[in-house]
Amino acid sequence: MSGWIDISQPLHAKVPVWPGDTPFSYGLTWTKEQSGSVNVGQITMSTHTGTHIDAPFHFEKEGKRVGELDLSVYAGPTLVVVLEGIERLHPEALAQTDISGVTRLLIRTDAWIDRSRFPETIPLVDPALAPWLQERGVQLLGLDLPSVDPLDSKDLPAHHALARHGIHILEGAVLDGVKPGRYELVAFPLPLQDADGSPVRAVLKPI
Ligand SMILES: Nc1ccccc1C(=O)C[C@H](N)C(=O)O
Ligand SMILES: [Zn+2]
Ligand SMILES: [Zn+2]
């Protein structure tokens, strides 16, 4: 595929969703026979299924909606870091990593092992990571996890801290086997003007 590595979860009827959230479905509104000319599909899904971005409106009443997000954050040079077996993503965990000049950071935790099911527990992002990343110029944090906060969190401290420090959130990336290093990332949200989040087709190309 011309050097692009697809880091998006395939979307199909069995893609795991947040417990209780809308299942993904794709179906035909009309078949070619019915319409007399074309197959026409429809999709139903949660905005937080699979590989997706969170707009601040997801967790803040007056937060920015998808249509208001700065697109430039979602494409460009990116560092992939592997932190396997980690339970808390905090600044010390990145102390050995050279993140100078890094605007976009993807962390591979490998903690979501069985991707056919929604995980029961996941590593968390320590809110202290947000100012630390901002000081170093990071504007996008992406994880191979369905959330940056624990699954049972209601106050979402990491979501809020990241937003407060101008760091955009990418969740559910598939980083299995992706080597640490520098890549070009493309992961644009759909132009869902008023939405709280959006699925993305996220891809990496080594640079
Ligand atoms: N879909 C949900 C349904 C209910 C409650 C939370 C979620 C989430 O998706 C939260 C997660 N932190 C997310 O940003 O994707
Ligand atoms: Zn989300
Ligand atoms: Zn989230």
From TrEMBL:
Its EC number is 3.5.1.9. Zn(2+) 1 binds at H48, H52, D54, E171. Pfam families: Cyclase. It comes from Desmospora activa DSM 45169. Pathway: Amino-acid degradation; L-tryptophan degradation via kynurenine pathway; L-kynurenine from L-tryptophan: step 2/2. Binds 2 zinc ions per subunit. This is Kynurenine formamidase. Keywords: Hydrolase, Metal-binding, Tryptophan catabolism, Zinc. The gene is kynB. Belongs to the Cyclase 1 superfamily. KynB family. The keyword Hydrolase applies.
